[in-house]
Design goal:
Strand content: 35-45%
Helix content: 10-25%
Number of strands: 9
Distance between the termini: 21 Å
Radius of gyration: 15 Å
């Protein structure tokens, strides 16, 4: 059973479902591509912006593939290079009252990738800090990881790291 939840975001009721999969459904727009980026010591890369701590990622630009988006966002936000990106799942979002660019039904992709290089960090774009943390400490840094869909993502991440 896929974890589901309903939350209020910007005053709107939003419905989320975490789906563990290495394949994408057809016909649903991709709004976000995010990387769970792991170093050789098993630590995971997180970045801080005005909303707090999270994972490097963002919106695809016109004509970009998800992998191109992932590489660009990880480079821009975390000053890191990654290798071997693997789709591990996605959050399907239904946001019936959303009138912004994402639309009313979209996907937020999650990739697992290995960090091949960490460059010198600069406070540019929207990111003010970068850290490598233990996977066990993620819920202490990123509050949504304690939600039903967040726990689903964490479980999927742990399962994929072990395999």
């Amino acid at each position: 059973m896929n974890p589901k939840e309903t939350l209020v975001f910007d005053g709107r009721e939003v419905f989320l479902e975490w789906i563990e999969s290495d394949k994408l459904p057809e016909g649903i727009d991709i709004s976000q591509v995010t990387g769970f980026c792991i170093d050789n010591n098993g630590q995971i890369l997180i970045v801080k912006n005005k909303r707090g701590w999270g994972f490097p990622g963002g919106h695809p630009e016109k004509g970009e593939t998800p992998i191109e988006t992932l590489n660009r966002e990880v480079s821009e936000e975390a000053y890191a290079k990654i290798i071997e990106p693997k789709l591990i799942g996605y959050t399907e979002v239904r946001d019936p009252e959303n009138n912004s660019i994402e639309g009313k039904h979209y996907l937020q992709l999650r990739y697992l990738a290995k960090i091949s290089e960490l460059e010198e960090f600069h406070k540019e774009f929207e990111t003010s800090e970068r850290q490598l943390v233990s996977i066990d400490s993620l819920p202490q840094h990123i509050s949504w990881m304690t939600s039903p869909t967040g726990k689903g993502q964490l479980d999927t991440l742990l399962k994929n790291i072990k395999s």
